[in-house]
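Reproducibility note. Readers wishing to regenerate the assembly model reported in the main text can use the exact inputs given here. Chain order matters: entities are listed in the order in which they were concatenated for prediction.
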Amino acid sequence: MLSVEQLVTLFEHFRKANSFQGKVAELYQPASYLMDLGGKRLRPVFTLAAHQLFEDQIDSSLAGALAIEVFHNFSLMHDDIMDQSPLRRGQPTVHIRYDTNAAILSGDWMFVHTYELLSRYEPVLAYDLIQLMNQTAVQVCEGQQRDINFEKMDRVNEMDYLEMIRDKTAVLLGAAAQMGARIASATKDDQENLYTMGLHTGLAFQLIDDYLDVYGVQTGKKSGGDIRQNKKTILYIKTMERASEADREELLSLYQEDEPDKITRVVRLFDKYEAGDYLRQLTLEYSQQATAALNQVNVDPGRKINLISLLNELLNRNK
Amino acid sequence: MLSVEQLVTLFEHFRKANSFQGKVAELYQPASYLMDLGGKRLRPVFTLAAHQLFEDQIDSSLAGALAIEVFHNFSLMHDDIMDQSPLRRGQPTVHIRYDTNAAILSGDWMFVHTYELLSRYEPVLAYDLIQLMNQTAVQVCEGQQRDINFEKMDRVNEMDYLEMIRDKTAVLLGAAAQMGARIASATKDDQENLYTMGLHTGLAFQLIDDYLDVYGVQTGKKSGGDIRQNKKTILYIKTMERASEADREELLSLYQEDEPDKITRVVRLFDKYEAGDYLRQLTLEYSQQATAALNQVNVDPGRKINLISLLNELLNRNK
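Running the prediction on these inputs yields the following C-alpha coordinates for the assembly.
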Protein backbone atom coordinates (compact mmCIF):
# COMPACT_ATOMS: atom_id res chain seq x y z
CA MET A 1 0.00 0.00 0.00
CA LEU A 2 1.33 3.43 -0.89
CA SER A 3 1.85 6.03 1.83
CA VAL A 4 0.43 9.53 1.51
CA GLU A 5 3.83 10.78 0.43
CA GLN A 6 4.05 8.09 -2.23
CA LEU A 7 0.56 9.01 -3.44
CA VAL A 8 1.68 12.64 -3.86
CA THR A 9 4.75 11.47 -5.80
CA LEU A 10 2.64 9.24 -8.02
CA PHE A 11 0.25 12.09 -8.70
CA GLU A 12 2.99 14.60 -9.45
CA HIS A 13 4.58 12.18 -11.87
CA PHE A 14 1.29 11.76 -13.72
CA ARG A 15 0.62 15.50 -13.66
CA LYS A 16 3.98 16.25 -15.26
CA ALA A 17 3.49 13.53 -17.86
CA ASN A 18 0.16 15.18 -18.72
CA SER A 19 1.36 18.76 -18.93
CA PHE A 20 -0.87 21.31 -20.61
CA GLN A 21 -0.27 21.88 -24.26
CA GLY A 22 -2.10 22.86 -27.38
CA LYS A 23 -1.93 25.07 -30.42
CA VAL A 24 -1.95 28.45 -28.67
CA ALA A 25 0.73 28.58 -25.99
CA GLU A 26 -0.60 31.75 -24.31
CA LEU A 27 -3.72 29.84 -23.28
CA TYR A 28 -1.80 27.11 -21.46
CA GLN A 29 1.07 28.99 -19.83
CA PRO A 30 -1.01 30.64 -17.06
CA ALA A 31 -2.63 27.31 -16.22
CA SER A 32 0.76 25.58 -16.00
CA TYR A 33 2.14 28.44 -13.93
CA LEU A 34 -0.60 28.07 -11.33
CA MET A 35 -0.44 24.27 -11.20
CA ASP A 36 3.35 24.43 -10.84
CA LEU A 37 3.06 26.65 -7.76
CA GLY A 38 2.38 23.44 -5.90
CA GLY A 39 0.18 23.00 -2.86
CA LYS A 40 -0.55 19.98 -0.71
CA ARG A 41 -2.40 18.10 -3.49
CA LEU A 42 -4.91 17.18 -0.82
CA ARG A 43 -7.77 16.59 -3.22
CA PRO A 44 -5.98 14.20 -5.59
CA VAL A 45 -4.56 12.38 -2.56
CA PHE A 46 -8.12 11.91 -1.31
CA THR A 47 -9.08 10.40 -4.66
CA LEU A 48 -6.11 8.04 -4.73
CA ALA A 49 -6.34 7.11 -1.05
CA ALA A 50 -10.07 6.41 -1.37
CA HIS A 51 -9.38 4.16 -4.36
CA GLN A 52 -6.63 2.40 -2.43
CA LEU A 53 -9.12 1.35 0.25
CA PHE A 54 -10.51 -1.09 -2.30
CA GLU A 55 -7.55 -2.25 -4.37
CA ASP A 56 -3.80 -1.88 -4.72
CA GLN A 57 -3.73 -0.96 -8.39
CA ILE A 58 -4.89 2.66 -8.40
CA ASP A 59 -3.44 4.03 -11.64
CA SER A 60 -6.92 4.24 -13.15
CA SER A 61 -7.76 6.99 -10.63
CA LEU A 62 -4.96 9.28 -11.75
CA ALA A 63 -6.96 11.02 -14.51
CA GLY A 64 -9.82 11.62 -12.08
CA ALA A 65 -7.43 12.93 -9.44
CA LEU A 66 -5.92 15.31 -11.98
CA ALA A 67 -9.39 16.45 -13.10
CA ILE A 68 -10.22 17.35 -9.50
CA GLU A 69 -6.94 19.26 -9.04
CA VAL A 70 -7.37 21.10 -12.37
CA PHE A 71 -10.89 22.09 -11.38
CA HIS A 72 -9.63 23.27 -7.99
CA ASN A 73 -6.97 25.43 -9.64
CA PHE A 74 -9.50 26.81 -12.14
CA SER A 75 -11.65 27.95 -9.22
CA LEU A 76 -8.63 29.49 -7.47
CA MET A 77 -7.70 31.36 -10.67
CA HIS A 78 -11.14 32.92 -11.06
CA ASP A 79 -11.66 33.50 -7.31
CA ASP A 80 -8.35 35.35 -7.12
CA ILE A 81 -9.60 37.79 -9.77
CA MET A 82 -12.90 38.28 -7.95
CA ASP A 83 -11.23 38.67 -4.55
CA GLN A 84 -8.45 40.85 -6.03
CA SER A 85 -5.87 38.65 -4.31
CA PRO A 86 -2.31 39.59 -5.26
CA LEU A 87 -0.65 36.43 -3.92
CA ARG A 88 -1.25 32.69 -4.10
CA ARG A 89 1.15 30.36 -2.35
CA GLY A 90 3.52 33.29 -1.87
CA GLN A 91 3.73 34.04 -5.60
CA PRO A 92 1.84 36.53 -7.80
CA THR A 93 -1.65 35.34 -8.75
CA VAL A 94 -2.33 34.70 -12.44
CA HIS A 95 -4.17 37.98 -13.06
CA ILE A 96 -1.16 39.83 -11.59
CA ARG A 97 1.59 37.74 -13.20
CA TYR A 98 -0.16 37.76 -16.61
CA ASP A 99 -3.38 39.82 -16.74
CA THR A 100 -7.07 39.52 -15.95
CA ASN A 101 -7.99 38.35 -19.45
CA ALA A 102 -5.41 35.58 -19.24
CA ALA A 103 -6.81 34.52 -15.87
CA ILE A 104 -10.37 34.45 -17.21
CA LEU A 105 -9.58 32.59 -20.41
CA SER A 106 -6.95 30.20 -19.13
CA GLY A 107 -9.30 29.42 -16.24
CA ASP A 108 -12.09 28.67 -18.71
CA TRP A 109 -9.79 26.29 -20.53
CA MET A 110 -8.92 24.51 -17.25
CA PHE A 111 -12.62 24.00 -16.72
CA VAL A 112 -12.96 22.34 -20.14
CA HIS A 113 -9.86 20.30 -19.40
CA THR A 114 -11.49 18.95 -16.23
CA TYR A 115 -14.15 17.42 -18.45
CA GLU A 116 -11.61 16.25 -21.02
CA LEU A 117 -9.81 14.31 -18.30
CA LEU A 118 -13.05 12.75 -17.06
CA SER A 119 -13.93 11.82 -20.65
CA ARG A 120 -10.88 9.56 -20.76
CA TYR A 121 -12.89 6.91 -18.90
CA GLU A 122 -15.22 4.49 -20.63
CA PRO A 123 -18.69 5.99 -21.22
CA VAL A 124 -20.66 4.67 -18.25
CA LEU A 125 -17.96 5.45 -15.72
CA ALA A 126 -17.23 8.81 -17.36
CA TYR A 127 -20.93 9.62 -17.16
CA ASP A 128 -21.03 9.01 -13.41
CA LEU A 129 -17.88 11.02 -12.80
CA ILE A 130 -19.18 13.89 -14.91
CA GLN A 131 -22.49 13.92 -13.01
CA LEU A 132 -20.51 14.13 -9.77
CA MET A 133 -18.39 16.94 -11.21
CA ASN A 134 -21.46 18.86 -12.48
CA GLN A 135 -23.19 18.77 -9.13
CA THR A 136 -19.98 19.75 -7.33
CA ALA A 137 -19.16 22.57 -9.75
CA VAL A 138 -22.63 24.12 -9.37
CA GLN A 139 -22.17 24.08 -5.61
CA VAL A 140 -18.70 25.62 -5.86
CA CYS A 141 -20.15 28.48 -7.97
CA GLU A 142 -23.00 28.91 -5.47
CA GLY A 143 -20.52 28.92 -2.58
CA GLN A 144 -18.44 31.63 -4.19
CA GLN A 145 -21.59 33.66 -4.87
CA ARG A 146 -22.68 33.28 -1.22
CA ASP A 147 -19.24 34.46 -0.11
CA ILE A 148 -19.55 37.53 -2.36
CA ASN A 149 -23.04 38.21 -1.02
CA PHE A 150 -21.81 38.03 2.60
CA GLU A 151 -19.38 40.86 2.00
CA LYS A 152 -22.33 43.22 1.52
CA MET A 153 -24.23 42.02 4.61
CA ASP A 154 -23.77 43.16 8.24
CA ARG A 155 -25.21 40.02 9.73
CA VAL A 156 -24.70 36.46 8.56
CA ASN A 157 -26.07 33.58 10.54
CA GLU A 158 -24.16 30.44 11.42
CA MET A 159 -26.17 28.17 9.16
CA ASP A 160 -25.60 30.43 6.15
CA TYR A 161 -21.89 30.56 6.85
CA LEU A 162 -21.64 26.79 7.15
CA GLU A 163 -23.55 26.36 3.89
CA MET A 164 -21.14 28.76 2.22
CA ILE A 165 -17.98 26.92 3.29
CA ARG A 166 -19.64 23.57 2.55
CA ASP A 167 -20.31 24.68 -1.06
CA LYS A 168 -17.19 26.73 -1.67
CA THR A 169 -14.67 24.34 -0.13
CA ALA A 170 -15.95 21.11 1.39
CA VAL A 171 -17.97 19.53 -1.45
CA LEU A 172 -14.88 19.27 -3.65
CA LEU A 173 -13.12 17.20 -0.99
CA GLY A 174 -16.22 15.03 -0.78
CA ALA A 175 -16.28 14.63 -4.56
CA ALA A 176 -12.54 13.87 -4.63
CA ALA A 177 -12.95 10.98 -2.20
CA GLN A 178 -16.11 9.68 -3.84
CA MET A 179 -14.45 9.75 -7.23
CA GLY A 180 -11.72 7.35 -6.11
CA ALA A 181 -14.36 5.02 -4.69
CA ARG A 182 -16.45 5.18 -7.88
CA ILE A 183 -13.46 4.43 -10.09
CA ALA A 184 -12.72 1.47 -7.83
CA SER A 185 -16.33 0.30 -8.42
CA ALA A 186 -17.15 0.58 -4.70
CA THR A 187 -20.76 0.13 -3.56
CA LYS A 188 -23.09 3.14 -3.42
CA ASP A 189 -22.93 3.04 0.39
CA ASP A 190 -19.15 3.13 0.44
CA GLN A 191 -19.14 5.92 -2.14
CA GLU A 192 -21.51 7.94 0.01
CA ASN A 193 -19.53 7.32 3.16
CA LEU A 194 -16.38 8.52 1.47
CA TYR A 195 -18.19 11.59 0.18
CA THR A 196 -19.32 12.29 3.76
CA MET A 197 -15.80 11.76 5.04
CA GLY A 198 -14.42 14.26 2.51
CA LEU A 199 -17.21 16.77 3.08
CA HIS A 200 -16.82 16.83 6.86
CA THR A 201 -13.05 16.91 6.59
CA GLY A 202 -13.43 19.92 4.30
CA LEU A 203 -15.75 21.68 6.76
CA ALA A 204 -13.42 21.01 9.69
CA PHE A 205 -10.43 22.02 7.59
CA GLN A 206 -11.94 25.40 6.74
CA LEU A 207 -12.99 26.03 10.35
CA ILE A 208 -9.44 25.24 11.49
CA ASP A 209 -8.22 27.77 8.93
CA ASP A 210 -10.56 30.37 10.40
CA TYR A 211 -9.34 29.54 13.92
CA LEU A 212 -5.64 29.58 13.08
CA ASP A 213 -5.98 32.86 11.23
CA VAL A 214 -6.71 34.48 14.59
CA TYR A 215 -5.17 32.14 17.17
CA GLY A 216 -2.52 30.21 15.28
CA VAL A 217 1.24 30.31 15.53
CA GLN A 218 2.03 32.54 12.58
CA THR A 219 3.90 31.10 9.62
CA GLY A 220 4.59 33.88 7.19
CA LYS A 221 0.97 34.96 6.89
CA LYS A 222 0.18 38.06 8.91
CA SER A 223 -2.05 37.26 11.87
CA GLY A 224 -5.70 38.30 11.74
CA GLY A 225 -6.02 38.62 7.96
CA ASP A 226 -9.67 37.60 8.15
CA ILE A 227 -10.38 40.34 10.70
CA ARG A 228 -8.54 42.90 8.63
CA GLN A 229 -10.71 41.90 5.66
CA ASN A 230 -13.87 41.98 7.81
CA LYS A 231 -14.63 38.32 7.13
CA LYS A 232 -17.73 37.09 8.87
CA THR A 233 -16.36 33.78 10.12
CA ILE A 234 -17.91 31.73 12.92
CA LEU A 235 -15.81 33.71 15.41
CA TYR A 236 -17.53 36.91 14.33
CA ILE A 237 -20.96 35.33 13.92
CA LYS A 238 -20.95 33.67 17.35
CA THR A 239 -19.68 36.82 19.05
CA MET A 240 -22.42 38.88 17.38
CA GLU A 241 -24.95 36.30 18.49
CA ARG A 242 -23.80 36.21 22.12
CA ALA A 243 -22.69 39.79 22.69
CA SER A 244 -24.45 42.50 24.69
CA GLU A 245 -25.90 45.27 22.59
CA ALA A 246 -22.98 47.57 23.42
CA ASP A 247 -20.38 44.96 22.45
CA ARG A 248 -22.29 44.11 19.28
CA GLU A 249 -22.23 47.73 18.24
CA GLU A 250 -18.53 47.93 19.02
CA LEU A 251 -17.80 44.87 16.86
CA LEU A 252 -19.96 46.21 14.04
CA SER A 253 -18.16 49.53 14.11
CA LEU A 254 -14.71 47.86 14.37
CA TYR A 255 -15.59 45.92 11.21
CA GLN A 256 -16.23 49.21 9.45
CA GLU A 257 -12.91 50.86 10.20
CA ASP A 258 -9.22 50.21 9.91
CA GLU A 259 -7.64 51.43 13.17
CA PRO A 260 -4.19 50.16 14.21
CA ASP A 261 -5.61 48.37 17.27
CA LYS A 262 -8.55 46.85 15.33
CA ILE A 263 -7.33 43.25 15.52
CA THR A 264 -6.52 43.38 19.26
CA ARG A 265 -9.92 44.86 20.06
CA VAL A 266 -11.83 42.40 17.87
CA VAL A 267 -9.97 39.43 19.40
CA ARG A 268 -10.76 40.76 22.88
CA LEU A 269 -14.47 40.58 21.98
CA PHE A 270 -14.11 37.10 20.44
CA ASP A 271 -12.44 36.00 23.69
CA LYS A 272 -15.01 37.63 25.97
CA TYR A 273 -17.75 35.56 24.33
CA GLU A 274 -15.66 32.40 24.01
CA ALA A 275 -16.17 32.26 20.27
CA GLY A 276 -12.87 30.38 19.85
CA ASP A 277 -14.05 27.61 22.16
CA TYR A 278 -17.29 27.34 20.24
CA LEU A 279 -15.40 27.11 16.96
CA ARG A 280 -13.10 24.38 18.32
CA GLN A 281 -16.10 22.40 19.54
CA LEU A 282 -17.77 22.68 16.14
CA THR A 283 -14.55 21.62 14.42
CA LEU A 284 -14.31 18.60 16.71
CA GLU A 285 -17.83 17.54 15.79
CA TYR A 286 -17.10 17.68 12.07
CA SER A 287 -13.82 15.84 12.59
CA GLN A 288 -15.65 13.09 14.45
CA GLN A 289 -18.24 12.83 11.72
CA ALA A 290 -15.47 12.52 9.13
CA THR A 291 -13.85 9.72 11.10
CA ALA A 292 -17.18 8.01 11.73
CA ALA A 293 -17.94 8.01 8.00
CA LEU A 294 -14.56 6.43 7.28
CA ASN A 295 -15.24 3.81 9.95
CA GLN A 296 -18.44 2.90 8.13
CA VAL A 297 -16.62 2.03 4.92
CA ASN A 298 -16.88 -1.71 4.44
CA VAL A 299 -13.23 -2.74 3.96
CA ASP A 300 -10.58 -4.30 6.16
CA PRO A 301 -9.59 -1.73 8.85
CA GLY A 302 -5.95 -2.27 7.95
CA ARG A 303 -6.57 -0.62 4.58
CA LYS A 304 -7.75 2.54 6.31
CA ILE A 305 -4.47 3.32 8.06
CA ASN A 306 -3.39 5.85 5.45
CA LEU A 307 -6.61 7.83 5.49
CA ILE A 308 -6.86 7.71 9.27
CA SER A 309 -3.41 9.19 9.68
CA LEU A 310 -4.12 11.76 6.95
CA LEU A 311 -7.31 12.88 8.71
CA ASN A 312 -5.46 13.04 12.03
CA GLU A 313 -2.80 15.21 10.51
CA LEU A 314 -5.28 17.53 8.78
CA LEU A 315 -7.65 17.85 11.69
CA ASN A 316 -5.08 18.36 14.41
CA ARG A 317 -2.80 20.77 12.61
CA ASN A 318 -1.77 23.97 14.35
CA LYS A 319 -0.42 25.87 11.38
CA MET B 1 -41.90 19.27 -40.93
CA LEU B 2 -41.34 22.38 -38.84
CA SER B 3 -40.23 25.61 -40.52
CA VAL B 4 -37.25 27.58 -39.20
CA GLU B 5 -39.65 29.95 -37.44
CA GLN B 6 -41.43 27.05 -35.80
CA LEU B 7 -38.09 25.62 -34.70
CA VAL B 8 -37.25 28.92 -33.01
CA THR B 9 -40.63 28.93 -31.26
CA LEU B 10 -40.17 25.33 -30.11
CA PHE B 11 -36.75 26.18 -28.78
CA GLU B 12 -37.89 29.33 -26.97
CA HIS B 13 -40.71 27.41 -25.33
CA PHE B 14 -38.26 24.80 -24.07
CA ARG B 15 -35.80 27.44 -22.94
CA LYS B 16 -38.42 29.23 -20.86
CA ALA B 17 -39.63 25.96 -19.36
CA ASN B 18 -36.01 25.31 -18.34
CA SER B 19 -35.24 28.70 -16.87
CA PHE B 20 -32.21 29.04 -14.65
CA GLN B 21 -32.76 28.62 -10.98
CA GLY B 22 -31.01 27.43 -7.89
CA LYS B 23 -30.30 28.30 -4.31
CA VAL B 24 -28.41 31.55 -4.86
CA ALA B 25 -30.40 33.91 -7.07
CA GLU B 26 -27.49 36.30 -7.74
CA LEU B 27 -25.69 33.54 -9.62
CA TYR B 28 -28.55 32.93 -12.04
CA GLN B 29 -29.89 36.43 -12.70
CA PRO B 30 -27.03 37.60 -14.95
CA ALA B 31 -27.26 34.40 -16.99
CA SER B 32 -31.03 34.81 -17.44
CA TYR B 33 -30.55 38.47 -18.32
CA LEU B 34 -28.16 37.63 -21.14
CA MET B 35 -30.21 34.74 -22.49
CA ASP B 36 -33.34 36.91 -22.43
CA LEU B 37 -31.67 39.54 -24.63
CA GLY B 38 -32.56 37.26 -27.49
CA GLY B 39 -30.60 36.76 -30.67
CA LYS B 40 -31.32 34.71 -33.75
CA ARG B 41 -30.94 31.35 -31.94
CA LEU B 42 -29.02 30.23 -34.99
CA ARG B 43 -27.07 27.51 -33.17
CA PRO B 44 -30.05 25.74 -31.58
CA VAL B 45 -31.90 26.02 -34.89
CA PHE B 46 -28.97 24.25 -36.54
CA THR B 47 -29.21 21.45 -33.99
CA LEU B 48 -32.96 21.04 -34.42
CA ALA B 49 -32.92 21.40 -38.21
CA ALA B 50 -30.09 18.86 -38.49
CA HIS B 51 -32.08 16.41 -36.36
CA GLN B 52 -35.17 17.04 -38.48
CA LEU B 53 -33.33 15.82 -41.57
CA PHE B 54 -33.60 12.32 -40.12
CA GLU B 55 -36.91 12.21 -38.26
CA ASP B 56 -39.98 14.31 -37.46
CA GLN B 57 -39.92 13.87 -33.70
CA ILE B 58 -37.08 16.15 -32.61
CA ASP B 59 -37.91 16.93 -28.98
CA SER B 60 -34.98 14.84 -27.82
CA SER B 61 -32.63 17.42 -29.38
CA LEU B 62 -33.95 20.31 -27.30
CA ALA B 63 -31.63 19.77 -24.33
CA GLY B 64 -28.65 19.60 -26.69
CA ALA B 65 -29.79 22.72 -28.52
CA LEU B 66 -30.11 24.55 -25.20
CA ALA B 67 -26.66 23.32 -24.10
CA ILE B 68 -25.16 24.82 -27.27
CA GLU B 69 -26.95 28.15 -26.77
CA VAL B 70 -25.97 28.31 -23.08
CA PHE B 71 -22.35 27.65 -24.03
CA HIS B 72 -22.53 30.34 -26.71
CA ASN B 73 -23.87 32.86 -24.19
CA PHE B 74 -21.25 31.86 -21.64
CA SER B 75 -18.55 32.63 -24.19
CA LEU B 76 -20.19 35.97 -25.05
CA MET B 77 -20.34 36.88 -21.35
CA HIS B 78 -16.63 36.25 -20.79
CA ASP B 79 -15.55 37.67 -24.18
CA ASP B 80 -17.42 40.91 -23.43
CA ILE B 81 -15.35 41.33 -20.25
CA MET B 82 -12.12 40.65 -22.14
CA ASP B 83 -13.05 42.93 -25.04
CA GLN B 84 -14.45 45.60 -22.67
CA SER B 85 -17.62 45.72 -24.78
CA PRO B 86 -20.29 47.95 -23.26
CA LEU B 87 -23.18 46.71 -25.37
CA ARG B 88 -24.58 43.37 -26.49
CA ARG B 89 -27.69 43.31 -28.67
CA GLY B 90 -28.17 47.01 -27.96
CA GLN B 91 -28.31 46.48 -24.18
CA PRO B 92 -25.64 46.78 -21.47
CA THR B 93 -23.34 43.76 -21.28
CA VAL B 94 -23.42 41.69 -18.09
CA HIS B 95 -20.23 43.15 -16.61
CA ILE B 96 -21.72 46.64 -17.09
CA ARG B 97 -25.30 45.86 -16.02
CA TYR B 98 -24.10 43.85 -12.98
CA ASP B 99 -20.31 43.81 -12.45
CA THR B 100 -17.22 41.96 -13.64
CA ASN B 101 -17.35 39.42 -10.84
CA ALA B 102 -20.95 38.58 -11.70
CA ALA B 103 -19.97 38.14 -15.35
CA ILE B 104 -17.08 35.84 -14.44
CA LEU B 105 -19.00 33.70 -11.97
CA SER B 106 -22.35 33.56 -13.70
CA GLY B 107 -20.47 32.68 -16.89
CA ASP B 108 -18.68 29.87 -15.08
CA TRP B 109 -22.02 28.55 -13.93
CA MET B 110 -23.36 28.64 -17.51
CA PHE B 111 -20.40 26.55 -18.53
CA VAL B 112 -21.25 23.93 -15.89
CA HIS B 113 -24.87 24.10 -16.97
CA THR B 114 -23.88 23.24 -20.53
CA TYR B 115 -22.56 19.94 -19.20
CA GLU B 116 -25.58 19.45 -16.94
CA LEU B 117 -27.86 19.70 -19.96
CA LEU B 118 -25.75 17.22 -21.95
CA SER B 119 -25.80 14.86 -18.95
CA ARG B 120 -29.56 14.55 -19.30
CA TYR B 121 -29.00 12.05 -22.11
CA GLU B 122 -28.41 8.37 -21.50
CA PRO B 123 -24.73 7.61 -20.76
CA VAL B 124 -23.45 6.52 -24.17
CA LEU B 125 -25.13 9.37 -26.04
CA ALA B 126 -24.20 11.89 -23.33
CA TYR B 127 -20.61 10.71 -23.59
CA ASP B 128 -20.48 11.39 -27.34
CA LEU B 129 -22.10 14.81 -26.96
CA ILE B 130 -19.72 15.75 -24.14
CA GLN B 131 -16.71 14.70 -26.24
CA LEU B 132 -18.00 16.94 -29.03
CA MET B 133 -18.52 19.79 -26.56
CA ASN B 134 -15.04 19.34 -25.02
CA GLN B 135 -13.29 19.48 -28.36
CA THR B 136 -15.38 22.49 -29.43
CA ALA B 137 -14.88 24.36 -26.16
CA VAL B 138 -11.09 23.96 -26.33
CA GLN B 139 -11.16 25.40 -29.85
CA VAL B 140 -13.36 28.31 -28.79
CA CYS B 141 -10.88 29.15 -26.00
CA GLU B 142 -7.99 28.87 -28.46
CA GLY B 143 -9.84 31.10 -30.95
CA GLN B 144 -10.40 33.79 -28.34
CA GLN B 145 -6.73 33.57 -27.34
CA ARG B 146 -5.64 33.92 -31.00
CA ASP B 147 -7.90 36.97 -31.34
CA ILE B 148 -6.29 38.54 -28.25
CA ASN B 149 -2.83 37.74 -29.62
CA PHE B 150 -3.65 39.40 -32.97
CA GLU B 151 -4.34 42.72 -31.25
CA LYS B 152 -0.66 42.95 -30.30
CA MET B 153 0.64 42.06 -33.79
CA ASP B 154 1.14 44.36 -36.77
CA ARG B 155 0.93 41.61 -39.35
CA VAL B 156 -1.43 38.67 -39.36
CA ASN B 157 -1.53 36.32 -42.30
CA GLU B 158 -4.68 35.08 -43.97
CA MET B 159 -4.31 31.49 -42.77
CA ASP B 160 -3.92 32.60 -39.15
CA TYR B 161 -6.97 34.81 -39.43
CA LEU B 162 -9.07 32.04 -40.91
CA GLU B 163 -7.95 29.65 -38.16
CA MET B 164 -8.95 32.23 -35.59
CA ILE B 165 -12.50 32.71 -36.91
CA ARG B 166 -12.82 28.97 -37.42
CA ASP B 167 -12.02 28.32 -33.76
CA LYS B 168 -13.71 31.32 -32.22
CA THR B 169 -16.95 31.21 -34.21
CA ALA B 170 -17.36 28.49 -36.82
CA VAL B 171 -16.68 25.29 -34.86
CA LEU B 172 -19.65 25.91 -32.58
CA LEU B 173 -21.98 26.02 -35.58
CA GLY B 174 -20.40 22.80 -36.79
CA ALA B 175 -20.90 21.20 -33.38
CA ALA B 176 -24.49 22.46 -33.20
CA ALA B 177 -25.39 20.75 -36.47
CA GLN B 178 -23.48 17.58 -35.67
CA MET B 179 -25.18 17.36 -32.28
CA GLY B 180 -28.63 17.19 -33.87
CA ALA B 181 -27.42 14.48 -36.22
CA ARG B 182 -25.84 12.48 -33.37
CA ILE B 183 -28.98 12.67 -31.25
CA ALA B 184 -30.92 11.43 -34.28
CA SER B 185 -28.46 8.49 -34.45
CA ALA B 186 -27.29 9.52 -37.92
CA THR B 187 -24.33 7.72 -39.47
CA LYS B 188 -20.79 8.96 -38.84
CA ASP B 189 -20.63 10.21 -42.43
CA ASP B 190 -23.82 12.22 -42.11
CA GLN B 191 -22.66 13.61 -38.77
CA GLU B 192 -19.40 14.71 -40.36
CA ASN B 193 -21.13 16.25 -43.35
CA LEU B 194 -23.37 18.26 -41.06
CA TYR B 195 -20.37 19.36 -39.02
CA THR B 196 -18.71 20.52 -42.25
CA MET B 197 -21.88 22.32 -43.29
CA GLY B 198 -22.03 24.18 -39.96
CA LEU B 199 -18.33 24.94 -39.96
CA HIS B 200 -18.29 26.42 -43.45
CA THR B 201 -21.49 28.32 -42.81
CA GLY B 202 -19.85 29.79 -39.73
CA LEU B 203 -16.75 30.80 -41.68
CA ALA B 204 -18.83 32.41 -44.44
CA PHE B 205 -21.07 34.06 -41.86
CA GLN B 206 -18.14 35.70 -40.10
CA LEU B 207 -16.59 36.84 -43.39
CA ILE B 208 -19.92 38.40 -44.41
CA ASP B 209 -19.92 40.21 -41.05
CA ASP B 210 -16.46 41.58 -41.82
CA TYR B 211 -17.61 42.68 -45.29
CA LEU B 212 -20.84 44.31 -44.13
CA ASP B 213 -19.05 46.16 -41.36
CA VAL B 214 -17.29 48.16 -44.08
CA TYR B 215 -19.57 47.93 -47.13
CA GLY B 216 -23.01 47.10 -45.72
CA VAL B 217 -26.16 49.18 -45.59
CA GLN B 218 -25.96 50.41 -42.02
CA THR B 219 -28.54 49.25 -39.51
CA GLY B 220 -27.94 51.04 -36.24
CA LYS B 221 -24.30 49.98 -35.97
CA LYS B 222 -21.90 52.71 -36.98
CA SER B 223 -20.12 51.88 -40.22
CA GLY B 224 -16.50 50.81 -40.08
CA GLY B 225 -16.40 49.71 -36.44
CA ASP B 226 -13.78 47.09 -37.27
CA ILE B 227 -11.53 49.75 -38.84
CA ARG B 228 -12.00 52.05 -35.88
CA GLN B 229 -10.93 49.18 -33.62
CA ASN B 230 -7.99 48.33 -35.90
CA LYS B 231 -9.24 44.82 -36.52
CA LYS B 232 -7.06 42.81 -38.82
CA THR B 233 -9.78 41.28 -40.96
CA ILE B 234 -9.24 39.74 -44.40
CA LEU B 235 -9.79 43.22 -45.92
CA TYR B 236 -6.80 44.54 -44.03
CA ILE B 237 -4.71 41.40 -44.45
CA LYS B 238 -5.26 41.20 -48.21
CA THR B 239 -4.57 44.91 -48.69
CA MET B 240 -1.34 44.63 -46.70
CA GLU B 241 -0.36 41.65 -48.81
CA ARG B 242 -1.08 43.32 -52.16
CA ALA B 243 -0.17 46.94 -51.44
CA SER B 244 2.91 48.85 -52.63
CA GLU B 245 5.38 49.67 -49.90
CA ALA B 246 4.08 53.23 -49.66
CA ASP B 247 0.45 52.16 -49.36
CA ARG B 248 1.37 49.51 -46.82
CA GLU B 249 3.05 52.09 -44.69
CA GLU B 250 0.06 54.37 -44.99
CA LEU B 251 -2.30 51.60 -43.89
CA LEU B 252 -0.04 50.66 -40.99
CA SER B 253 0.11 54.24 -39.82
CA LEU B 254 -3.67 54.75 -40.29
CA TYR B 255 -4.19 51.72 -38.03
CA GLN B 256 -2.11 53.45 -35.35
CA GLU B 257 -4.06 56.70 -35.23
CA ASP B 258 -7.58 57.96 -34.82
CA GLU B 259 -8.02 60.79 -37.38
CA PRO B 260 -11.54 61.87 -38.45
CA ASP B 261 -10.95 60.68 -42.02
CA LYS B 262 -9.37 57.37 -40.96
CA ILE B 263 -12.23 55.17 -42.19
CA THR B 264 -12.51 56.89 -45.59
CA ARG B 265 -8.78 56.63 -46.19
CA VAL B 266 -8.59 52.99 -45.10
CA VAL B 267 -11.55 52.04 -47.31
CA ARG B 268 -9.88 53.83 -50.24
CA LEU B 269 -6.87 51.52 -49.79
CA PHE B 270 -9.08 48.43 -49.43
CA ASP B 271 -10.78 49.43 -52.70
CA LYS B 272 -7.54 50.16 -54.51
CA TYR B 273 -6.39 46.59 -53.92
CA GLU B 274 -9.83 45.04 -54.45
CA ALA B 275 -9.79 43.45 -51.01
CA GLY B 276 -13.61 43.51 -50.93
CA ASP B 277 -13.79 41.42 -54.10
CA TYR B 278 -11.32 38.95 -52.68
CA LEU B 279 -13.36 38.66 -49.49
CA ARG B 280 -16.57 38.08 -51.43
CA GLN B 281 -14.90 35.39 -53.51
CA LEU B 282 -13.66 33.64 -50.36
CA THR B 283 -17.11 33.88 -48.80
CA LEU B 284 -18.63 32.34 -51.90
CA GLU B 285 -16.24 29.41 -51.71
CA TYR B 286 -17.13 28.67 -48.09
CA SER B 287 -20.82 29.04 -48.88
CA GLN B 288 -20.49 26.55 -51.70
CA GLN B 289 -18.64 24.12 -49.44
CA ALA B 290 -21.42 24.42 -46.86
CA THR B 291 -24.05 23.66 -49.48
CA ALA B 292 -22.01 20.84 -50.95
CA ALA B 293 -21.69 19.23 -47.51
CA LEU B 294 -25.44 19.43 -47.02
CA ASN B 295 -25.95 17.88 -50.45
CA GLN B 296 -23.84 14.92 -49.34
CA VAL B 297 -26.15 14.09 -46.44
CA ASN B 298 -27.85 10.83 -47.23
CA VAL B 299 -31.54 11.70 -46.81
CA ASP B 300 -34.41 12.53 -49.14
CA PRO B 301 -33.71 15.96 -50.73
CA GLY B 302 -37.22 17.07 -49.71
CA ARG B 303 -36.17 16.97 -46.06
CA LYS B 304 -33.37 19.45 -46.76
CA ILE B 305 -35.61 22.32 -47.83
CA ASN B 306 -35.49 24.04 -44.44
CA LEU B 307 -31.74 23.97 -44.14
CA ILE B 308 -31.23 25.00 -47.76
CA SER B 309 -33.41 28.07 -47.34
CA LEU B 310 -31.74 28.86 -44.00
CA LEU B 311 -28.29 28.71 -45.60
CA ASN B 312 -29.48 30.86 -48.50
CA GLU B 313 -30.79 33.46 -46.10
CA LEU B 314 -27.65 33.46 -43.96
CA LEU B 315 -25.20 33.46 -46.81
CA ASN B 316 -26.91 36.08 -48.97
CA ARG B 317 -27.79 38.58 -46.27
CA ASN B 318 -26.90 42.22 -46.79
CA LYS B 319 -27.37 43.50 -43.25
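We highlight two features of this model. The two ends of chain A are 28 Å apart (CA to CA). The longest helix of chain A spans residues 123-151.
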